[in-house]
Every structure is written in structure tokens, then in C-alpha cells.
Amino acid sequence: MSKAHWLLFTDGRIVQAKCVAWDDRRDLALLQIVATQDLTGLDIPTFPIAELAGSPSKRNSPLLCVGHPGSEDLEADQSGLLTDYDVLHISRGRFRGLAKGQEVQDNSDIGALQHGCWTYWGHSGAPLLVEDGRLVGLHSSWDDETGMRRGVAWEAVKAFLETLPTCMVV
């Protein structure tokens, strides 16, 4: 868990982060920023965060997904073709409920949350937000049989955060 990774924000800021908590059953991890580039003189007050919503979404409520679609077209017959997707893509969709019969805390195979936001390879971990910007889940995958987008539900995110020491949670 202690290996550090360099991350690039869309505004060009570079940070180094390391994983400080990981839950493979819930398919969640917490990264801690351990180093940043020199921000002297830049008008950047803080790093962006999203607060966890106070409760899970209601079925059919609007959602936003802020994701990073991959640059290679993985659906083309020929390999190496590039997409022209923007670095960040915001899509609208709806919360479609939780998958019947799936334990909401077990996202190790496929996420229990179902949503209708457009996603592409590279969106894994993208926040699913209600219209006021609060977090209600994270995109993780899609169901090959139904085509439904899937994600880690609010209930699993909340339970994961509750396992962390209070000094790690904003």
C-alpha cells in the first residue's frame, strides 16, 4: 500500500499520493497526497473534494458522473485508434437502484449500484454526484448482460469511511 503514484489534475497541478486504506471487497481505496509541486504564486486555494451525501439517492433521481474516458477506442475493430473524448467528461443519468440479490457491501466482482450515466473505459472510480455536488457512489463497471452501468453504492462508501480513523476523514 505504501507505493506512491504521481497524479495529474486537469488544471495541470501534479501531486504525489499513496494509498493509506484499501478494501478489496467494497472495491474502495483512500489516497493521501504526500507531495505537491510548488504552488507559490498560483491562485489555487485547495484541492477539490466532494462531500458524501447525507443519504443514498432515491430511484430515478438525477446523477452526474465526472470521468476520464480512455484515449484509445477499445470498441473499434482496429487497435490503436484514438477517441476524441475530452480529458474530463461530465455525463447526466439517473440512479437506477441497487442490483436485486446483491450484497451492497460486496463490489469485488461488479458494483451493486446501477446508474444510467454515460461511461467508457477509464471511468472506473469516477464520482457519481447528485446535482448539489455531493457524492452518492463511484462508477466501477458495467453489466455485460444488461448493459447497465454499475458502481459502488453510497452505503458501501459510508461504511468504508466509518472504518477509518477520524483523522483520515475530512
UniProtKB/TrEMBL annotation:
The domain of life for this entry's organism is Eukaryota
Gene3D superfamilies tied to this protein: 2.40.10.120
Stored InterPro entries? Peptidase_S1_PA
Short name of one Pfam family for this protein? Trypsin_2
Name the record gives this protein: Trypsin-like peptidase domain-containing protein
